[in-house]
Specification:
Elements lengths: L1 H19 L2 E3 L6 E3 L3 E5 L2 E5 L1 H28 L1
Antiparallel strand pairs: 1-2, 3-4
Bound molecules: zinc ion (ZN).
Length: 79
C-alpha cells in the first residue's frame, strides 16, 4: 500500500514538473523556449511570450501609458 502511495506521489510530482518546466513557443518571436510562458494581455487577447519579448512588451505598455498620460494632460488643457 505504501508503495502505491509513493508511486502516485512521484507521478504527481513528475506531472507538475512537466507542467511548469515544459516548453512553449513564443507568440512574438516564434522561438521555442523552455519554462513557462509569460502571459501578456493586449486588446483582449492573451499571448504567450518568452521573457525577452515580455520585457519588450512591458516597455511598450509603459510607453503607451506615458502617451495616455500626456493625452490626458492635453485634454485637461483644452477642456
Ligand atoms: Zn519571444
Amino acid at each position: 500500500m505504501k508503495r502505491i502511495i509513493a508511486l502516485v506521489f512521484v507521478l504527481v510530482l513528475a506531472l507538475s514538473l512537466v507542467a511548469c518546466g515544459g516548453k512553449f513557443t513564443c507568440d512574438e518571436c516564434g522561438k521555442e523556449k523552455s519554462g513557462s510562458p509569460k502571459k501578456a494581455e493586449f486588446m483582449g487577447e492573451t499571448a504567450n511570450l518568452c521573457s525577452e519579448c515580455y520585457a519588450e512588451f512591458e516597455e511598450l505598455m509603459g510607453e503607451l501609458g506615458d502617451l495616455e498620460d500626456q493625452l490626458g494632460d492635453l485634454e485637461g488643457l483644452l477642456g
